[in-house]
Every structure is written in C-alpha cells, then in structure tokens.
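Fold this sequence, please.
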Amino acid sequence: MTTHPATLGRFFEDYVVGDVYQHPMGRTITETDNAWITCLTMNTNQNHFNEHLARTNPITDGKVIVNSGLTIALVLGLSVIDMSQNAVANLQFTDVKLQHPVYVGDTIYAESICTDLRRSKSRPYAGIVSMVTRGINQDGEVVVAWNRSVMVATRESGIGQNYFPEVKAPSLTEVVAQTEDARS
C-alpha cells in the first residue's frame, strides 16, 4: 500500500507560463455573507445593506450590491488552491478592475493564467509566480480582474510539506489487518 502525504497545491516548478488554471470551486454569495463583510469592514455605504436606498441606484439595477471587498476576497480565495497554496508571501496586486456588479445570489468562479516565472534571487527556496486572475459570475460575466505576484516555495525547500503529525497508534494498515484477523 502507498501512503499519500498531506500535500496540497502547486510548488514553483509546477507552473508553466501561459497555462490557464480554472479553479475548481464556485461560491454562491448569500445575504449573510454580504452583511458580515460589510459590518466587519465598517463599510457604511448603504447600497450594501439598505434595499430601499439601493432601489434608487441606477448602476445596481435597484438591487443591493455585494461589497466589493467580499468580491475581491472571494475570488482571491477561490484561486489559492491552484496559485498560492504554497506561497510564502503575497508580493503585489495591481490593476484591480471591478468590471460588473455582483449581487446576493450570484455564484462566483475564478480562473488564472500564469504570466511569468522566475527564481528568487534573495530566497533560494522560492520563486516568483506572476498571474492574471479574474472572477466570473454564473452568467459568464467577468466581475473582477487583477495582476498578482506571489513568492511560492519550491518542492525541494520542504516548505508546506511533511507537516502531518506522526500518529502514536497502530498504522491504519495494522488496524485493518487486526480487524480482518478478528473477523476470521
């Protein structure tokens, strides 16, 4: 039997310039999500929580608009599994563009393209991965996009690996064998 260690995400050497990563999860934004982030960030713009006032906003089709901080955070989070699970540092976000309103009930997906790779000159255990990431709603509308650079650990560095604790009990293969012996 093979034990597959607890490893998640990509390491620096796994990226290829020009490859597109369609991130595997989507997330539907709820009214509670929007209310929590609005309160948490102290964003007092009533278009995020006052339906009556939002009906007068010609940009939002009269609907409560999702806090853009939530939109950005969600798309970033959706991209982590592919683009920065093994990052040791975020280095840069530029050219953030909010391109289409997001409303409660929208489902957001994300995709990224790797635009540049280089080994770090000052940190031999990592490389710099640059990308363009964008969020897309259920109708295929791009809602947000940005450029981002992260410092990602190399596989040989060991960073983000071998963190699973050594179990102080019989191995699972021993447990299964004991169970099978008891049944015989």
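Strands lie at 20-22, 27-28, 87-98, 107-119, 126-137, 142-153. The CA atoms of residues 78 and 131 lie 14 Å apart.
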